[in-house]
Amino acid sequence: MEEKQSLISPPVPLAQLGEDQNLKPRMETRGLSVYYGKKMGVGSVTMPIYTNQVTALIGPSGCGKTTFLRALNRMHDLTPIARVEGEAILDGQNIYTPGVDPVEIRRKIGMVFQKPNPFPTLSIYDNVVAGLKLLGVGKKSVLDEAAERSLRQSALWDEVKDRLRAPGMSLSGGQQQRLCIARALAVQPEVLLMDEPTSALDPISTQAIEDLMTTLKKHVTIVIVTHNMQQAARVSDFTGYFLTGELVEFGPTNTLFTAPKDPRTEAYITGRFG
Amino acid sequence: MATVRTQSRPSTSPLYRAFGDRLFAGLVLLLCLLIIGIVLLIGWQLGWNGARAFEVFGIVGFLSSTAWNPVTDVYGAWPFILGTLITSLLALALAFFPALAVAIFATEYAPRWLGNVLSYALELLASLPSVIYGLWGLSVLVPALRGVQQSLFLWASDHAQWLLPVLGNPIGIGLSAAVMVLAVMVIPYTASLAKDSIALVPAVQREAAYGLGATKWEVIRMAVVPYARGGILAGVILGLTRALGETMAVVLVIGNNKNLPFTLFGPATTIPSAIVNEFGEAQGLQLSSLLALGFILFLISGVLNLLAAWIVKRMSVDGRL
Ligand SMILES: Nc1ncnc2c1ncn2[C@@H]1O[C@H](COP(=O)(O)OP(=O)(O)O)[C@@H](O)[C@H]1O
Ligand SMILES: [Mg+2]
After folding, report:
1. FRET pair for A267, CA 20 to 30 Å: which of A32, B133, B136, B242?
2. Class of domain A14-115+189-269
3. Do you find a cis peptide bond into B261, omega within 30 degrees of 0?
4. Do B213 and A118 touch (CB under 8 A)?
């Protein structure tokens, strides 16, 4: 218990945080619920996602973290049995309003998955610019520039700049995941959703990805699902704790980890649960 | 618990089980060798019996000669090789996009029940005896084709005289009829394999593309088809092998003409049709030449299969289809 707390810096009061960084929500959910058939995946989550901050979603396995994350860019549209209720607001507009094109939403809200999933038949370069090509960008100078920018942002540039034409699959697992981050960043999304992006990686690659998130949040708002509390404590500014489909507590990471309001949160972070 | 139970099972002694293992392994090995042996035996038989043709006309001579005359007892393989390759490759080219479209529709667009119906229909089509396709070609396709050919021919004689020698006689029966029948026969094979391989594309690959803001069609283009390309190619190769060796359906509609040059509409021939047409009355050098033709087909199929296996291996993701 003491070990875990020693990883965490002293708490910063919420008011002070807000003042310092002039927090504005980039996204916001209101009573967002997802059902798989009759079964509830997450229920009535109301939560802000602050601009240029890292928001971590933690909680035991099966508590609905992934389900909630995928509701933020309408990924559930692809699951026939999934049904979403409530609102997810991006820049003042509910993305579930009829008439909103999910394809447009996904261009603004990028996603990185649990397992690195580069396109196996494409080169490193082509993986990165795949999204731009979808947008109809064909000019080589634009693509080159975007590729370099996103590979630098994902801290992969130095490792691959001499072999951009090599297959994406020739990279190590950790590099592949950073390639996927670069691919998501290339289209300059407003929000980047990451679902346990390091759970399939070794500690060094995990470190690399955690490191890049701190610089990345200057460019993009990040939501990261993690089952690793230390990781949440290290990389995030805000944390939401989920339990059986419910958002139990949300707050600044420091506060949530050092002075949780809900006994269930306290039980979880002190390791008495999960 | 479980281990205790397995150990205390009073049945087979380890010794006996090791023997059973080895017996099974031996049996499997034997069967494999038998199959390889049969293939080699067929190749050797064809080669041995066709050797006289190669001896008399020379290997290059036999392969490149366009003469085939039982009266003067002079034989050459070129028209048959050419006809076989042209019909098969054209059929494949014609079948590829429809087959891919069927596969994509069945896996990505059709509701589940319709996808199942389509799969069943493809299997049924693949298992129909080829003579049925031949009869369909002769009674339905050829008459329809004749009409189309005649109008094209008339148009060409007014506007593009130079096309006439390429088109040839618009009689329905001929090269284009054979190509079309073959294409129809190949589609179920190619579509079936492509379908299976598309269904195996992992969800994370699709989601990668959706996550970038791809539309459904873009997902298919950038994530699904590239990932499945090994299996799609395997289907193409299987189709090609089927087309190369196809006999009955082709014999019925190709018109069996071994005089070069072949034209698009006019009659032509292939190795299997030549064998079927002439084998009954063939003797001596003619018989040997027919067997030599069979040997050539055997080699073409073998080489193409190897080439195909190599391409599929190189193209497939994760070394699988
Ligand atoms: N596609 C699905 N179909 C049915 N139930 C699902 C599906 N995906 C997730 N669930 C259920 O929803 C609940 C939340 O799952 P998930 O969001 O994956 O949890 P987490 O990511 O926190 O481990 C679980 O009970 C899970 O079984
Ligand atoms: Mg999850």
Report:
1. A32
2. alpha beta
3. yes
4. no
